[in-house]
UniProtKB/TrEMBL annotation, chain A:
Key component of the proton channel; it plays a direct role in the translocation of protons across the membrane. This is ATP synthase subunit a. It holds the Pfam family ATP-synt_A. It is found in: Cell membrane; Membrane. The chain crosses the membrane at residues 46-68, 106-131, 137-156, 202-224, 236-258.
From TrEMBL, chain B:
The keyword Amino-acid biosynthesis does not apply. It comes from Trujillonella endophytica. It is a single-pass membrane protein. F-type ATPases have 2 components, F(1) - the catalytic core - and F(0) - the membrane proton channel. F(1) has five subunits: alpha(3), beta(3), gamma(1), delta(1), epsilon(1). F(0) has three main subunits: a(1), b(2) and c(10-14). The alpha and beta chains form an alternating ring which encloses part of the gamma chain. F(1) is attached to F(0) by a central stalk formed by the gamma and epsilon chains, while a peripheral stalk is formed by the delta and b chains. CDD domains: ATP-synt_Fo_b. This is ATP synthase subunit b. Belongs to the ATPase B chain family. It comes from the Bacteria. GO terms for cellular component: plasma membrane; proton-transporting ATP synthase complex.
Length: 275, 189
């Protein structure tokens, strides 16, 4: 979509006879100006508006769940009901049904994942923020790293280190010669591909979603200032921006849920010996 | 595109600072969820489950209690019935016994009365017989004296003769029982 936006930009730039052509948004979108910069123990911290959005989203989400659970009653109020529904979705729908009978203790972790991703993703369509911190690879990576450590640790704890690694290296029920093929794949799958795809899936979705919105929005703004066919394309672009916002809303929920469900299946694999 | 030059960084190679910020943020989220949110919700879920199960348990307990009471009443009723039946049987038996006693008593009484009557009858008969004997003797002697023409009445020797005659008569009567009455009136006539 970015490339087509580029093409559109160049075409329009040429059409309008040079000068100030449409400058398609690029990676710069994800590297806003730093608000504050400091170095601590040799690590450079650059606080940008995305960082601040992350903090705000996280703080608001935490405030919401605390408010929802603070005076939890048997008969829930509106706020508690909403918070409880979200928590139950993860607790019953993922921790209990996906992870398995031993899954309830993982409910807080999975709920943390779900709510954290959801809150941050949601910033993608909140006016003035309009970018999800999850479109910065660092944050999905952190979450994937947590998941990676957790499901390996649980696998070792539940099955014992020997059995856990043996089952991954030598998948039971596979003919011996096939191990030449299966073992490297399994190894890669369990220790590299899983966390990487987990992080990249979330990151790429939010990244692409943001690019879509930005391209259509900026395109509409640009086109409204032109003549020729822009009278048609401008509103179309604006409409697409709105449609894409709704689409983004779907992606926001879906990605938060998919991330959590996948982590649930990984935990399930770690707890139950059978693959 | 001028801005592309400004960013040599790849989006897949995030700066360490950002990762640390992410770590801190998610750790805080984890802490809040593990220490605060999850326990509260679990507590509510448990309380809710207990409330529902408690209600069911209470209802079950009440039902069991009602059933126990019903059983007790039934048992008591059955007991009362058997008791009543027992009492009835006993009364019947007692009545029977009393009736039996009365009957035996009455039979004894009647037997005694009959015996006494017979005794009296026998005694009267004997008396009548004795009287008749004397009468017949006197009459016979009278008649014989009248026939002979002389009084034989105070002759003791002749009296012995009468007695002997009467004894013979009685002996005959003893052989053909019941003819005494028939003979005596004949003789009386």
């Amino acid at each position: 979509m970015t490339s087509s936006a580029h093409t559109l930009g160049t075409v329009l730039a040429v059409d309008s006879g040079g000068g100030d052509g449409f400058q398609a948004p690029g990676l710069g979108e994800f590297y806003p100006e730093t608000v504050a910069e400091f170095s601590l123990l040799g690590v450079d911290f650059a606080i940008t508006r995305i960082t601040i959005i992350l903090w705000i989203a996280t703080a608001l989400m935490l405030a919401f769940v605390i408010a929802a659970s603070r005076k939890a009653q048997i008969v829930p109020g509106k706020l508690q009901f909403i918070g409880e529904s979200g928590y139950s979705l993860v607790r019953d729908g993922i921790a209990r049904d996906v992870v398995g009978p031993k899954g309830i203790p993982f409910a807080p972790f999975l709920a943390s994942l779900f709510f954290f991703i959801l809150a941050n993703n949601f910033m993608a369509i909140v006016p003035f923020a309009q970018i999800s911190p999850m479109s910065k690879f660092a944050f999905p990576l952190v979450l994937a790293a947590f998941c990676w450590v957790l499901y390996i640790y649980i696998g070792i704890r539940e099955q014992g280190a020997g059995k856990y690694f043996k089952d991954i290296l030598f998948l039971p029920g596979v003919p011996k010669p096939m191990y030449i093929l299966v073992t490297p794949i399994e190894l890669l799958q369990n220790f590299v591909v899983r966390p990487f795809t987990l992080a990249v899936r979330l990151f790429a979705n939010m990244f692409a979603g943001h690019m879509l919105l930005v391209v259509f929005s900026l395109g509409a703004v640009y086109l409204f200032g032109r003549d020729n066919f822009s009278v048609i394309f401008g509103p179309v672009s604006a409409l697409m921006a709105i449609v894409m916002t709704f689409f983004e809303l779907l992606v926001i929920f879906l990605q938060a849920y998919v991330f959590t469900v996948l982590m649930g299946t990984y935990l399930n694999g770690s707890i139950e010996a059978d693959h | 595109m001028s801005f592309l030059a400004a960013e040599s960084e790849s989006p897949l190679l995030p700066p360490v600072g950002e990762i640390i910020i992410g770590l801190i943020a998610f750790t805080i989220v984890l802490l809040v969820f593990f220490k605060f949110v999850a326990p509260r919700f679990e507590q509510v879920f448990r309380a809710r489950r207990e409330a529902i199960e408690g209600g069911i348990e209470r209802a079950e307990a009440m039902q069991a209690e009602a059933k126990a009471a019903l059983e007790q009443y039934r048992a008591q009723l059955a007991e009362a019935r058997t008791e009543a039946a027992q009492i009835r049987d006993q009364a019947r038996a007692e009545g029977q016994q009393i009736l039996e006693e009365l009957r035996t008593q009455a039979q004894e009484e009647s037997a005694r009365i009959v015996a006494r009557g017979e005794e009296q009858l026998a005694a009267s008969r004997q008396q009548v017989l004795n009287e008749l004997r004397t009468h017949i003797g006197t009459i016979a002697v009278d008649l014989a004296g009248r026939v002979v023409g002389e009084s034989l009445s105070d002759d003791a020797r002749r009296r012995g003769t009468v007695d002997r005659f009467l004894d013979q008569l009685e002996g005959m009567a003893g052989n053909a029982d019941g003819r005494v009455g028939a003979t005596v009136p004949e003789g009386n006539r």
